[in-house]
Structures are given as C-alpha cells and as structure tokens.
Design goal:
There is one protein chain. The protein is α/β, with parallel strands linked by helices. It has a single domain (about 1-300), classed as Alpha-Beta Barrel (TIM Barrel), CATH 3.20.20.220. It is built from eleven helices and ten strands. An eight-stranded parallel β-barrel has the order 2-3-4-5-6-7-8-9, surrounded by six helices. The chain has a two-stranded antiparallel ribbon with strand order 1-10. Strand 7 (about 175-180), helix 6 (about 185-200) and strand 8 form a beta-alpha-beta unit. The longest helix is centred in the C-terminal third of the chain and has 21 residues, at about 245-265. It is globular, with a radius of gyration of 19 Å. Residues about 295-300 have low confidence and may be disordered. The protein binds flavin-adenine dinucleotide. The site of flavin-adenine dinucleotide has 23 residues, from strand 4, strand 5, helix 5 and strand 7.
Length: about 300
Amino acid sequence: MPNGHIGGALPGSRLRVSFEFFPPKTAAMDEQLWHAVKRLEPLAPQFVSVTYGAGGTTRERTHATVKRIVDDTSLRPAAHLTCVGATREEIDRVVREYWEAGVRHIVALRGDPPAGSTSYAPHPGGYAYAADLVAGIRRVADFEVSVGAYPETHPEASSPEADLDNLRRKLDAGATRAISQYFFDVWTFLRFRDRCAKAGIAAPIIPGILPVTNFQQVVKFSRMCGASVPGWLAALFDGLDEDADTRRLVAATVAAEQVRRLQEHGVEDFHFYTLNRADLTYALCHILGMRPAATVRSAA
Ligand SMILES: Cc1cc2nc3c(=O)[nH]c(=O)nc-3n(C[C@H](O)[C@H](O)[C@H](O)COP(=O)(O)OP(=O)(O)OC[C@H]3O[C@@H](n4cnc5c(N)ncnc54)[C@H](O)[C@@H]3O)c2cc1C
C-alpha cells in the first residue's frame, strides 16, 4: 500500500478520531449498528467504544458487541464499564473477561443512579466512584483506561474546582485520557481545556461531539446530564419537529461548524457519539480531513 496508509487522516495530519456506539437491543438495531461499524471502519479510528447501560443492564450485550468487534473487524474496541449495582468482585470478573476476550481498553465511569433512584449511592462492597474503578481495573490487568470529563462541571460536583480535582484523581489512578461530555458552544470546551492545562492536567482531553439528529431528545437528555443547550441552537431547530430532512441538514451544518472551529483552535482528537448512525459522523470526519483506505491509496 503506497506510503503505508491504511486509511484515516491525510498524510501530514495528526488528526485522530474515535467513535462511540451503544449495544443493540433488537435485530433491526443490530443491523443498524453493524452497518455503521462497517461504514466507519475504513476511517481507521484510534478506537471505538461501546456503552454500558445504566445499572449494568446491558452487561451481556456490551460484552457481546465488544467481542464481535474484536473478532470480526480491524477496530480496537474500548468497553465502557460503570460502578453501579455491582460488587468489586463482580466488576473485577467482568474486567478479567474483557482481558481474556482480547480487549485492552476500558472507559471507566461511575454511572448514573438506576431507574427509580433519585440520587447516587455507592453499592455496598462496590467501587464508589470512577477513580476507585480506574484503580481497580489497573490492578486486574494493564488496560488502557479512559474516563469522563465535564466542560460544564458534573451536575453533582460541589464546585468546578472539586470536579477538576476529581478528574485529576482519575488520571492519577491510571487513566490516560478524558473524553468530554458533549457540548454545543466550542468556547465551553476550549475554556475547560485551558482550565485543565492551568491546573497542571497534562493528559489529553478529547471533545465528545454529538451530532444532533433529534433535537427534542437532546433537550431532554441535556437536562439530566447538565449540558446546556444554547438559544441559538433551539432557534435553528425551531419549526423542524416534523421535517426530518431539513433537521438533518441543519444538524450536519451545526456539527461541521463545531468541529472546524475546534480544529482551528488546535484540537486534533475527536470522539463522536454516533448513536449507531454512520452518515453524519462519516461526513464530519471527511470535513476534518479523514479519508477511507481506498481514497488515500488513489490520492497517494
Ligand atoms: C464519555 C462519557 C461516556 C459515558 N458512558 C456511559 C456509559 O456507558 N454508561 C453509563 O451508565 N453512563 C455513562 N456516562 C455517564 C456517566 O456515568 C455519568 O455522567 C455519571 O453521573 C458520572 O460518571 P463519572 O465517571 O464522570 O463519575 P465520577 O468521576 O465518579 O464523578 C461523579 C460525581 O461525583 C463527584 N465525586 C467523585 N469522587 C467523589 C468523592 N470521593 N466524594 C464525593 N464526590 C465525588 C464528582 O465530582 C462528580 O460530581 C458517560 C459519560 C461520559 C462523559
């Protein structure tokens, strides 16, 4: 293959991307997921991650999805894992099973309270917070570990400073990168990146990019996770509830502008929340300068 390229960023670029998927529930969702995985695979992402349902509800499905990525693709999977609803021994067993299945990367999270509970309480005998989970994973085996970070501060944190201290604890416990909660105002992320740097946090903080396809759903989810939805975004989607085609064009434009502006400010790593759809993420990667293997070959 000319220049040894196997797809990905164009020669000379340091761009790196990763893609997040969720484990499918039904046969139709399964088909959609694997279509998306196969479409995005030639872009040679740094890794692809698979989420873990609240309270461990998708434990088997997450494992099966990650295992199939190991077995059937050239991609490097990262399995999300949370502290919720399990003892340390149970979690350590899951971690060992991942290692035995050939998985080498875990995204370690605290998780949200299970349905019906309003506030988080650590499981008796479990890992209390993500920092404890990171340390536990690293004790089991030499995994690469990523953690979550919150440009707008985690909603339960006592202060932005305490949340930054928590991020530092997760990195000190052995994580090597943080992936951010999604955000819509690029300055929210850039200011957070600056605050991390000022606080001496040297690990990469990767922006989590959510291409908006269903605006009403994003509004609902943002209320729970503390991400703000700017007025200008609401105005752009105003009147489009019944017009999926225009919504998709607007969504692509908004996300394209977001990634281009981040790139202008020196961001070279992007994590895409794909929602198991390839099209918008594929287009955004193209805009950023990524090409699948065949195109890089013919351009070389
Ligand atoms: C990139 C990314 C991927 C995600 N994937 C999933 C997923 O697959 N499944 C899922 O269920 N959820 C997922 N989430 C959501 C995540 O579980 C929630 O945001 C959760 O509320 C916090 O998780 P955390 O790992 O950031 O928690 P932590 O880092 O443990 O922090 C949680 C809160 O507790 C505070 N805190 C930390 N330590 C202490 C302490 N010792 N004492 C008191 N307070 C403390 C922190 O400041 C923060 O407010 C994801 C989030 C992100 C950003």
